[in-house]
Design brief:
Strand 2, helix 2 and strand 3 form a beta-alpha-beta unit. This protein is 48% helix and 21% strand. By secondary structure, the chain is an alpha/beta fold. Helix 3 packs across helix 5. It has a single domain, classed as HUPs (Rossmann fold, 3-Layer(aba) Sandwich).
Amino acid sequence: MYTHILSAVDLSNESLDVMVKSKQLAESLGAKLTVLNVVEPIFPVHTYEGELAEQLMISTEQLNDNAQKMLTSLADKAGIDHGVLVFDGGAAVDTVLDVAKEKGCDLICVGSHGKSGLKLLLGSVTNGILHHTGIDVLAIRVKEAD
């Protein structure tokens, strides 16, 4: 059925659930698993000069380092090998779609909060992925942390 699953997570409290369920699905199907986190840039650093640009660059590097540490920690909790982790920066929807294509994935797993309305139900990134990919997308229902 599926041979390569991409689990796209945002490092929210619910990401562990998405990673665990994606791993279980991959194992049950004998499929390969890739776990992706995308950090979207906060500031267009290249538009600034001097000390401010340097400070923004340091902040961006710290953000990236923290995100990598969080993804690794979540992978440890989920029992996922670090070799399947992909960390990238850029626009989330485009990056997820690019990685899925580059890796030859045939299913993308994302989290769904189940609020009301399509955007709230799926989230803007999940909605963008769903409407701009030619492969299957599995929205995994997650419970928000209290």
